[in-house]
Amino acid sequence: MTAQGFLLLLELVGVFAFALDGALTAMRSTHLDLFGVVALGIVTAVGGGIVRDVLLGELPPATFRVWYYLATATGGALVAFWGHRLLARVSRPIFVFDTVGLSLFAVTGAQLAVDAGADAGQAILLGGLTAVGGGTLRDVLVRKVPSILTGGLYAVPALLGAVVAVVAPLLGVSGGLAAFAGGVLCAAVRTGGALRGWKAPRASLTSPEDLD
Amino acid sequence: MTAQGFLLLLELVGVFAFALDGALTAMRSTHLDLFGVVALGIVTAVGGGIVRDVLLGELPPATFRVWYYLATATGGALVAFWGHRLLARVSRPIFVFDTVGLSLFAVTGAQLAVDAGADAGQAILLGGLTAVGGGTLRDVLVRKVPSILTGGLYAVPALLGAVVAVVAPLLGVSGGLAAFAGGVLCAAVRTGGALRGWKAPRASLTSPEDLD
Amino acid sequence: MTAQGFLLLLELVGVFAFALDGALTAMRSTHLDLFGVVALGIVTAVGGGIVRDVLLGELPPATFRVWYYLATATGGALVAFWGHRLLARVSRPIFVFDTVGLSLFAVTGAQLAVDAGADAGQAILLGGLTAVGGGTLRDVLVRKVPSILTGGLYAVPALLGAVVAVVAPLLGVSGGLAAFAGGVLCAAVRTGGALRGWKAPRASLTSPEDLD
Question: Known PANTHER family for this protein (chains A, B, C) (predicted)?
Fold first, then answer.
């Protein structure tokens, strides 16, 4: 398998995981019907990649150029719709699929940005944006405060994963291995943060109404 | 009238209908003042077209290149603001204008994408996106769960209309007739679905909290 | 200092003000932790400029091409997080910083659009969009109805400032002076409107449910 092929495979697994995540969120939060579940699954799965391609100026975005992104996203949403009982056996399935999608999109988004000519700093930022973009659109559409604002460890692990995926190849590590290591780091930091309840500091406001 | 002229006419009627829709929604949902009503009318009317042009890489978007899109949108919003008593005589005016805009944007968005060099599959998707884009922005801004998620028959009729508008010309039908037929199909499916209460299946979750 | 240098300085002051504004909003509205405060500060500070660059087709956007936008935004958010007690001594700090950012982004956004080849009408619209874009994203993310819809005098002063920044140079005024005058006008109209309670007319609906 070529490096490009491996990157595409990781990306499609990420699309599938985000489609499951978005579709389960649609069923969980607002009891949407089949079309709503598929729509939210697709937005969650392809939203981050579209934002990345728009910012890179790679237009039309890959989702519109080739058929398999949308097919994978639709497939994932339908699997979630009909298989939610099975998926509910996974412990905290929405968290798990969201973490898988986040980790894979952070590293693939960053490496695709490098392939498109972005420099290292841009590629890390675009990897992070690709990772958090779909979930942020998902949360805005179902009217939740998005994870990038509340989650503490959501954007940070994505950026860490993107750093590894971009910097390791500059040091001679193969792209595939760097993507794998970055993805594992992102997933580990996010999961560790959630399990151990790592918390970032909060500001203690005595009279928040003074700030208006 | 040339084919381009007819397409532009349909598009501007769609812009006007969406401006009425957005402005009435602003008065209905949140009792906004004149500037808020005009702002939501414009966003609803030109939002879908801007998204389409960004994804096609046709920058700056047509809304910024020529004056008549914004003029039509502003005009529609002002008509709604001062004429809402008259518009309220239409049965369910927000639904009606939203359906007119949806149908016209689905077919014009798809044919404009073809003219800009998109292939058939891309054009159908971009037609659907153009149609649902403005209403989705509208709902996000007034904090409603958007129609693409709850409405059942919202994105589907738009995609059906776009299919007709793109495929019929490939079979030798004139572009104008194809746009007309696609628009009628979209409006009929959406209206039929609403009147007859066609519902897509829902997932029955026994314990939704298991999905987190 | 060159005209470009002065424009960049104004823009970075605007980025800093919007970062304070977004970060304070994050602490005020939803008691977010450090990462959430920084994320909302950055989105508010760079969101408008990214929207402008996407619509101009200047891709990747300046925020991704050079380091100092993100650095200024992050710095502003951290200052707000650790210095909120000090900032609370400013009367109505969120309003003040939002007005500074709005005024500076309206004039710099409009002049940058001119530099990128936009004509006068486009530049005014893009200046207005740059000014209201970040705050609108901020409000959507924390689930407030955005100021462009409710505020009455929010988009209007931004457009007025952009008109001055674009038209005065055509009449021979230097760009720097035009930007200064446009910014002062925008800030004066917005502040005057808020202090004096200028209100735009509202539609009086007898039976809003007729509009559905």
Answer: INNER MEMBRANE PROTEIN (PTHR30506), UPF0126 INNER MEMBRANE PROTEIN YADS-RELATED (PTHR30506:SF3)
